[in-house]
Design brief:
This protein is mostly helical and about 325 residues long. The protein has eleven helices and two strands; from the N terminus they run ααααααααααββα. The protein is about 70% helix and about 5% strand. It has a two-stranded antiparallel ribbon. Helix 4 crosses helix 7, helix 5 (about 95-110) packs antiparallel against helix 11 and helix 9 (about 220-230) runs antiparallel to helix 10.
């Protein structure tokens, strides 16, 4: 079986597995990678960019190498290759868990239980929940759904289409390292620099594809394009900007503004501020539905891109 078909069948099986099973409560491969990366950090840590770059190379390179070795071991068996691709896809995507966490917070808000929503929010994003009221929590959820659609689904599929199992594992490793050490805290300002920059590079194609698919799958294509073009560049993240702006326009809401991370207040630009309204609790489910449509479209686009690319080179 050709490699392009292996990816198409395996990625579809992996997304189906994620839909049916979600993430395991214990023993998740990404959690195992996180523990390994923490162990490497304990050995390598110095408040120095070079040490952080070495940490990134060891951890992300190790994930890519593991994927390459596993792929080589099963390359003579099409069924095993599809199974490996499916397992890798299931391990690195997180669309179902993203939807479940967002929906759980939405249900708490609909029931008027703001404290329960605050307690649940750290499962989804790093905002300070005590600084948020019900509307602020709803906005944080919608923004997290948008950004994680790119990080947890589309970006992984893009790199899987490009590099197979090594691409899938490598992308998730880079994204996880950014979450662990890429933030600008005193400890990681220099040590996490390489991980943050590599994540920006790795996330670039997936973020643009996510934004395009939000235009296609959302309820207001013109609004999504308008918000993307007008506001994406104002966001401090080169990848979250296009995604959140496109989602904001597609949903007809305003995103961005003042937020708090770890006691640090940030004043971010408002996205879709001229045409959008304030986020409501009911917009959480709308964002989840949009995220699911974008994920399914991304599977089709990435599988088709792999097939077309293989056809041109054969």
């Amino acid at each position: 079986m050709r490699a392009d078909r292996v990816f198409a069948y395996g990625a579809a099986a992996g997304l189906l597995g994620d839909l049916l099973l979600g993430d395991p409560r214990r023993g998740h491969p990404v959690a195992a990678f996180g523990r390994a990366a923490s162990a490497v950090e304990r050995v390598l840590y110095r408040d120095h960019r070079g040490r952080g770059a070495l940490h990134t190379v060891v951890c992300a390179g190790g994930a890519v190498a593991l994927g390459a070795v596993a792929s080589r071991a099963v390359r003579s068996s099409p069924a095993a290759s599809v199974a490996l691709t499916g397992a890798a896809t299931w391990a690195v995507v997180g669309g179902t868990s993203l939807a479940r966490e967002a929906a759980a917070i939405g249900r708490a808000l609909e029931a008027g239980d703001v404290e329960a929503a605050r307690a649940r929010l750290p499962h989804l994003c790093g905002r300070d929940p005590q600084a948020l009221d019900a509307d602020g929590i709803a906005r944080a959820v919608v923004e997290s759904v948008a950004e994680n659609t790119s990080d947890a689904v589309v970006g992984a599929l893009v790199w899987g289409a490009v590099g197979g199992v090594p691409g899938l594992l490598g992308f998730r490793a880079v994204n996880t390292l950014d979450a662990m050490v890429g933030h600008k805290s005193p400890r990681y300002r220099r040590y996490g620099w390489a991980s943050a920059r590599l994540d920006d590079l790795a996330g670039w194609p997936g973020a643009r594809l996510t934004a395009v698919l939000a235009v296609v799958a959302g309820g207001d294509p013109r609004g999504a394009v308008r918000a993307w073009r007008a506001d994406a560049h104002r966001h401090p993240s080169p990848n979250a900007g296009p995604v959140e702006a496109s989602f904001a326009g597609a949903l007809g809401v305003r995103l961005g503004g003042t937020l708090s991370y770890g006691g640090r207040v940030e004043h971010r630009p408002v996205l879709n501020g001229d045409a959008g309204r304030a986020v409501r609790v009911t917009d959480i489910q709308r964002a989840v539905r949009l995220s699911r449509r974008v994920g399914l479209l991304a599977l089709g686009v990435c599988a088709a891109g792999r097939l077309l690319g293989k056809g041109r080179t054969s």
